[in-house]
Amino acid sequence: MTAQQQALIVEAHDLSFRWRPRDPDVLAIEALEIKAGERVFIEGPSGSGKTTLLNLLAGVLKPSAGRLLVLGQDLSGLPVRRRDSFRSDHIGFVFQSFNLMPYLSLIENVLLACRFSKRRRERIAAAGRTPEAEARRLLAHLGLEAKDLAGRGVNRLSTGQQQRVAVARALIGQPELIICDEPTSALDADAREAFLTLLRAETEAAGASLIFVSHDRALAPGFDRTIALQAINCGGMAGQ
Amino acid sequence: MNFPLKRLALRSLLNRWVTASLTITAIALSVGLLLGVEKVRTGAQDSFSNTISGTDLIVGARGGAVQLLLYSVFRIGDATNNISWESYQDMRAWREVDWAVPISLGDSHRGFRVVGTTGDYFKHYRFGRRQSLTFNAGQPYAALFEAAIGADVAEELGYSVGDKIILAHGVGAFEFAKHDNKPFTISGILAKTGTPVDRSVHVSLEAIEAIHIGWKDGRPPRAGLTVSTEVGAIQELQPTAVTAVMLGLKSRMAVFSVQRRINTYREEPLLAILPGVALQQLWDAIGGLETALLAISILVVGTGFLGMTAVSLSGLNERRREMAILRSVGARPVHVFLLLVVESGVLAAIGALIGAGILYVALVVAQPIIQVRLGFSLPIDWPSTWEMTLLGLVIVAGVISGFIPALLAYRRSLADGMSIRV
Hints:
The structure holds two protein chains of two kinds.
Chain A: H1 3-6, E1 8-17, E2 27-35, E3 39-43, H2 50-57, E4 65-70, E5 73-74, H3 80-90, E6 91-94, H4 106-115, H5 118-126, H6 131-141, H7 146-149, H8 159-171, E7 177-181, H9 189-206, E8 209-214, E9 225-228, H10 229-232
Parallel strand pairs in A: 3-8, 3-9, 6-7, 7-8
Antiparallel strand pairs in A: 1-2, 1-4, 4-5
Helix pairs in contact in A: 4-6, 4-8, 8-9
Chain B: H1 5-15, H2 17-49, E1 57-61, H3 65-74, E2 83-84, H4 85-93, E3 97-109, E4 112-117, H5 120-124, E5 126-127, E6 131-132, E7 135-138, E8 146-149, H6 151-157, E9 164-165, E10 168-169, E11 177-178, E12 184-190, E13 200-204, H7 205-211, E14 241-242, E15 244-249, H8 255-263, E16 270-273, H9 275-286, H10 288-316, H11 320-328, H12 333-373, H13 385-416
Parallel strand pairs in B: 4-13, 8-12
Antiparallel strand pairs in B: 1-15, 1-16, 2-14, 3-4, 3-10, 3-15, 5-6, 7-12, 8-13, 9-12, 10-11
Helix pairs in contact in B: 1-12, 2-10, 2-12, 10-13, 11-13, 12-13
């Protein structure tokens, strides 16, 4: 293991978030650590503070109190603009469903991640590729031959195919952290298993850490670690 | 930031092409209307300001400048006094004067004014862009009791060359005293000019004298007195006065000195006006309607943009996911804002361009019709600076109306973050 892999990708201490100063905490986590390269399953039903945690990790929301380091970077100390570019440089997202811009082609959807991130473009360039070639390579790797699908509108893809395009977009330019928010909930059982296998393999190949959030405990096997959000979140509606 | 917002906006619009094209249609039509109104407005003003062109000075008896303009050019109202024949002859002989065309007013034919003048009138009268009078049929009067009538006179009264008409004394609607012992033959019908010439009956100065032989203080002569209608009699029909004189100078530089000379003329109290200046003053005084038209067309454009804003706002909910995806890949809220503003700008720009296109198509179709019906020409030129400014303002207005949905999307994307709330 290299030093980088041993480093913590997420480090939270006494982290709390509330919408307004007088509101109760929506999220209160005493300690949370995720090591680089780790594949973590965060289990949480709706209302457990899942969305809030993801928005905090993404730097969209700012902690009300406590410390949150992502890749060793204290996001709360950064101006909004830097948080946005930090997100685009270091974190890839895969949402529940409808991850794609309906009016962009497959390739363009993947390239969207590079458009906002100079760092991703530089990494692709460092590997001696063009962003477009890299997008095609990733799509092909994920079982999507761009030349067959490029002409098609993304809305004609099956949900499973759409989710794979989303994974390609998350992975392009090698961000350190991939965050998935219920990416399999719209998939049937077979597609779900295939998708999870692919996702784990690809993140490993890319050397990225994976945070996978879902309410579905059945998905937990196959991850390095499972964290029950209800158990660690002392705030909000978690206890209700 | 290497992010082609414009391309993204275009693709997004293309994806919603039905609503986008409807919005563009609304904007294009309103812009076409605005430009059209503006074109007609400037065309009408231009045509009005050039009701008479090529004439450097109009001379009449001393009085109001607008009054002189009204009776000499528009044939509205009456002169308070005349200019003596001697003064006219004197001015004509001045060194700076190139030509002098006298007009004599006071008679009418079925509501249309009769203008007694010389043959030079047809030679020197200019309207619009220095266009000369032309004849649709026939020619200028040659014989004493011949008349050349304007296009409207011919059309409204159904006259053609060779018809006989009777002039009436005075200009009232009801013809009390007719010169019915001396009918005139129509020698020619002038082409439409869009000026008061269309509503005039032109005869020679001598004819005016001839029909008034024996008249005293505005009363007809006693029965039995008649006048020969032979052309040979013209020599004895020397007028003693004219109503106004149109002057053309050899050099425009001399306009003010000649004007001063006339205004300080010793023999007779006279007034000289520059027709262009007086026409502009008159237009400024009466030109309220055109401003109202402009205001209405601006409101129509505003309505188009309100429609665009409404469509954009109502589509915003469906696009929350789109915004969330953009946020997740690192787009800042300001990008979301700009995306929507650029979209509105693109819609407005395309609408404005198509609107300008509509104007030109309409111009090509309508130009000949307007020329014939209204008598003024709408030039088909490249857009003027003012029209370009208008188009620019339309696009700016479009961008600004994009601010409303953009601000809303901005605030939402701040609050929603990357969570997709549907």
